[in-house]
TrEMBL record, chain A:
Residues 562-577 have a biased composition (Polar residues). Residues 157-197, 219-238, 398-598 are annotated as: Disordered. Residues 22-123, 271-356 form the EH domain. Pfam families: EH. GO terms for cellular component: cytosol; plasma membrane. This is RALBP1 associated Eps domain containing 2. Residues 601-642 form a coiled coil. It comes from the Eukaryota. Residues 501-512 have a biased composition (Pro residues). Residues 304-339 form the EF-hand domain. The keyword Cell division does not apply.
TrEMBL record, chain B:
It comes from Prolemur simus. GO terms for cellular component: cytosol; endoplasmic reticulum; Golgi apparatus; perinuclear region of cytoplasm; TRAPP complex. It comes from the Eukaryota. This is Trafficking protein particle complex subunit 2-like protein. Keywords: Cytoplasm, Endoplasmic reticulum, ER-Golgi transport, Golgi apparatus, Transport.
Length: 649, 141
């Protein structure tokens, strides 16, 4: 155990104690990052780097790549960066780097990212694009540069940072199954030398000559694969080259081919043209999307097997909406082309195929994004009460109510919904509520991003004059008056309770921010008004307290052209009561009402949470009783057995 | 955490079953199978009312000494059954609900895929990953 780089930065993180294996591994990694940065002397044997640690700094680019390859979420990596002191000092000195590596190992072992975590013994951090560092530890440094089929695209684009991590995280479960030792030998035969496009082959040949040089220059690390030295351009070679390029001194060699052009997952311009034309043939509007069935027919023509197509679809449909926007379509097409040319499919969507990346790389109308902004706030607010409803007793009625304009969605068969774009709209919309609530799980997937906004807008436009909401089952508690509800609330079993109570219409009232937006606002407002009212009535429907007709009802009626049933009032009205007093202008009133509704809904949410807690407590008590009864029963049975001496033979 | 998660189709055949402990899987399969009766019973009990008003989360189906079985049914009569270890400091009802919700989300993701034929066994890797996370932490991350 030796203290590492204690002299470099005393005021940084506490001194590290590294084992020899860790020291070797870290210094090697550091050398790689540092070497790439300054084009300094070729990374010599690990020992040599110990001489230079005090002076070298690792560039942010390769370090970021390395961290990303560790497959930790972006937040963890940011945390690590901060903790290790790099943010403070502004660069990755050896101390910071080592601490960061140790923190990465801690995070990968499941420990919290804290300075204290690094004090204990930890396994080496694992990075996706290279072999397990554990392999390195055992002296097989050649493995370090072995190829993995799914080498994530080593790009310094920070905007793909987060997505990469999420893809990597998903890869985590699959990566252990791919033994590093097995992949290099198997990869060469697996690849064909068919260029993906003439663009690729051109660039590839341009960089091929560089390949032998890096390998020789790359000190003791010898490439095990035969093709690497001889072959012109099998993928492993390319990947190795790209890997090495990012980390090695030969980085300048690749300047002529900036941005890893021979990376198989990068779409060239002519490919892009082709894909866009194909897209247009399926769907004239390039800013719209292709439905799942159309895409399925089209991709089936590529004669790939269905499981592979299914996998490609999963990779490329980032927001999981059952339809492909232009970037998604390009990514899917590209993956198909790659697969047909013999490249194995990646475990996760490469960064160059991410929709956002493709959008940024090739300008595209940002209609969805703008719309998404306008609806973004509506969606989260929607989801919260909506999720509460689901938690409390959601039902399909929520789905039906939520996309108010698309009343055709009765949501009996969710799957049927997805078969067409139209139906997919409500499904996506109805999914949105769940997604932000499960932010942990789905924060990576911008589900609602490119799709829901457009879908909502279209849904809105289509449903200018939505039919009246279905009649609410009355005589059940209202959400707003939940204080009364708690009293009235019967602490019955949740199961029975659910049988009694009608479903809460999940309609989350669209919050006011969206109102201040564009023309669609005008359409929005009626929807908003109806939505809150429906949410209001849903919550009334939940508990057993009788309604009270709020005085503001007439005013709300005025604002909403659709006929509002009387039960529409409750929470919305109590909230909107003060707001709607004597206001003639619809807009300010609506806005105030919406804000008041929001508050009312939030209070309702709180009350519901309390009710929920009560229920949960009750549940646990009852289960406790059940357990006791079970034990009694067992005891009694035992007694019975004992008292039955002779009859048992 | 969940020791077994199962997705059962409308016709009561399994679309996806996965148990955490790999030994004695048969016991969990059997538990899930027997729980289907309870699920049907609950559905029919609530089914008197309109389908719209039926709760998706069915709650605790039945407890045994070692395990508790929870159920959830979607509107297309696809059932999710989760077997949880009783020795776990009782997972709160809300947590179970959120686990089911995430399972439901994963299921809809699988449904989204136009190459997935409803009624096929689920072999999607993403779905499997989400379920795997359920096992590990109780809540997918």
């Amino acid at each position: 155990m030796e203290a590492a780089a204690g002299g470099s930065c005393g005021s940084g993180p506490p001194p590290l104690l590294l084992s020899e294996g860790e020291q070797q591994c870290y210094s090697e990694l550091f050398a790689r990052c540092a070497g790439a940065a300054g084009g300094g002397p070729g990374p010599g044997p690990p020992e040599a780097t110990r001489v230079a640690p005090g002076t070298a700094t690792a560039a942010a680019g390769p370090v970021a790549d390395l961290f990303r390859a560790s497959q930790l979420p972006a937040e963890t990596l940011h945390q690590i960066t901060e903790l290790c002191g790099a943010k403070r000092v502004g660069y990755f000195g050896p101390t910071q780097f080592y601490v960061a590596l140790k923190l990465i190992a801690a995070a990968q072992s499941g420990l919290p990212v804290r300075i204290e975590s690094i004090k204990c013994e930890l396994p080496l951090p694992r990075f996706m694009m290279s072999k397990n560092d554990g392999e390195i530890r055992f002296g097989n440094s050649a493995e370090l540069h072995g190829t993995k089929v799914q080498i994530p695209y080593l790009t310094t684009e920070k905007n793909s940072f987060k997505r990469m991590d999420d893809e990597d995280k998903q890869q985590e479960t699959q990566s252990p199954t791919m033994s590093p030792l097995a992949s290099p030998p198997s990869s060469p035969p697996h690849y064909q030398r068919v260029p993906l496009s003439h663009g690729y082959s051109k660039l590839r040949s341009g960089t091929e000559q560089m390949h032998p040089a890096p390998y020789e220059a790359r000190q003791p690390i010898v490439q095990p694969e035969g093709p690497s030295s001889g072959g012109p351009g099998p993928k492993p070679l390319r990947h190795q080259a790209s890997l090495i390029r990012s980390f090695s001194v030969e980085r300048e060699l690749q300047d002529n081919s900036s941005n890893y052009p021979d990376e198989p997952w990068r779409i060239t311009a002519e490919q892009r043209e082709y894909y866009v034309n194909q897209f247009r043939s399926l769907q004239p509007d390039p800013s719209s999307f292709i439905s799942g069935s159309v895409a399925k027919n089209f991709f089936t023509k590529s004669k790939l097997s269905i499981p592979e197509l299914s996998y490609i679809w999963e990779l490329s449909d980032a927001d999981c909406d059952g339809a492909l926007t232009l970037p998604e379509f390009c990514a899917a097409f590209h993956l198909i082309v790659a697969r047909k040319n013999g490249y194995p499919l990646p475990e996760g969507l490469p960064p160059t195929l991410q929709p956002e990346y493709l959008q940024a790389a090739f300008p595209k109308p940002k209609r969805e994004c703008a719309l998404f902004d306008s609806y973004s706030e509506s969606l989260p607010a929607n989801q919260q009460p909506r999720d509460l409803n689901r938690m409390e007793k959601a039902s399909v009625k929520d789905m039906a109510d939520f996309p108010v304009p698309t009343q055709d969605v009765t949501g009996d068969d969710k799957q049927a919904l997805k078969s067409t774009t139209n139906e997919a709209l409500p499904k996506d919309v109805s999914e949105d509520p769940a997604t932000p609530k499960d932010s942990n799980n789905l924060k990576a997937r911008p589900r609602s991003r490119s799709y829901s906004s457009t879908s909502i807008e279209e849904a809105m436009k289509r449903g200018e004059d939505p039919p009246t909401p279905p009649p609410r089952p009355q005589k059940t508690h209202s959400r707003a008056s939940s204080l009364d509800l708690n009293k009235v609330f019967q602490p019955s079993m949740p199961a029975t309770k659910s049988g009694l109570l009608p479903p809460p219409p999940a309609l989350p009232p669209r919050p006011c921010p969206s109102q201040s937006e564009q023309v669609s606002e005008a359409e929005l407002l009626p929807q908003l008004n109806r939505a809150p009212s429906q949410a209001a009535e849903s919550s009334p429907a939940k508990k057993d307290t009788p309604y009270s007709q709020p005085p503001s009802k007439p005013i709300r009626r005025k604002l909403r052209p659709e006929n509002q049933t009387t039960e529409n009032q409750e929470p919305a009205t109590t909230v909107s009561g003060p707001a709607s007093v004597a206001t003639v202008k619809p807009h300010p009133t609506v806005q105030k009402q919406s804000s008041k509704q929001k508050k009312a809904i939030q209070t309702a949410i709180r009350k519901n949470k309390e009710a929920n807690a009560v229920l949960a407590r009750l549940n646990s008590e009852l289960q406790q009783q059940l357990k006791e009864v079970h034990q009694e029963r067992i005891a009694l049975e035992n007694q019975l057995e004992q008292l039955r001496p002779v009859t048992v033979l | 955490m969940a020791v077994c998660v199962a997705v059962i189709a409308k016709e009561n055949y399994p679309l996806y079953i996965r148990s955490a402990p790999t030994e004695n899987e048969l016991k969990f399969h059997y538990m899930v199978h027997t729980s289907l009766d309870v699920v049907d019973e609950k559905i029919s009990a609530m089914g008197k009312a309109l389908v719209d008003q039926r709760e998706l989360y069915l709650g605790l189906l039945y407890p045994t000494e070692d395990y508790k079985v929870y159920g959830y049914v979607t509107n297309s009569k696809v059932k999710f059954v989760m077997v949880v270890d009783s020795s776990n400091t009782a997972l709160r009802d809300n947590e179970i609900r959120s686990m089911f919700r995430k399972l439901h989300n994963s299921y809809t993701d699988v449904m989204c895929n136009p190459f997935y034929n409803p009624g096929d066994r689920i072999q999607s890797r993403w779905a499997l990953f989400a379920v795997h996370a359920l096992f590990l932490q109780g809540l997918p991350c």
